[in-house]
TrEMBL record:
PANTHER family the UniProt entry points to: PROTEIN MAIN-LIKE 2, PROTEIN MAINTENANCE OF MERISTEMS-LIKE
Source organism per UniProt: Lithocarpus litseifolius
A Pfam family the protein falls into: PMD
Name by which UniProt lists this protein: Aminotransferase-like plant mobile domain-containing protein
BP GO terms, sorted: meristem maintenance
Domain Aminotransferase-like plant mobile: 10-122
Length: 124
């Protein structure tokens, strides 16, 4: 378990592509929207907003994993709850995130397919 958290000290002992077999066995309708798996955008559902960061897990899908960028976890955004917010229009409250979602295909994580060598900077 320790090797899979953070930067692994022994990259050869990590199963980098745990979903490879499962992806091959999925019916076509499950993978037809694969382009939608890669946008680096906020996902919004009413009051909840979470940043989708596929650049942090591309190695699991056979791509070259670069050192992930820092993610801004907005503590104010994470502090929102439903108490006293019966009349809130969440589309207005989260308009910035809704716009970001509308442009999701222009904000895709671009990673290259390929093998990573043990000397790659990700393992430093």
């Amino acid at each position: 378990m320790g090797a899979a958290v953070g930067r692994p000290s022994q990259p050869t002992k990590v199963v980098w592509q745990p979903y490879e077999v499962e992806l091959e066995d999925l019916p076509p309708w499950c993978v037809v929207g694969r382009a939608m798996w890669m946008p680096s955008v906020s996902l919004a559902c009413f009051l909840l907003v979470e940043k989708h960061t596929p650049d942090r897990v591309v190695r699991q899908f056979g791509m070259i994993q670069e050192v992930p960028r820092a993610v801004n976890t907005d503590t104010v955004l994470h502090g929102i709850d439903l108490m006293g917010k019966v009349g809130v229009d969440w589309t207005q409250k989260h308009a910035e995130h809704v716009r970001e979602w509308g442009n999701r295909l222009q904000q895709r994580c671009e990673a290259m397919l390929g093998d990573m060598y043990p000397t790659h900077e990700y393992f430093d």
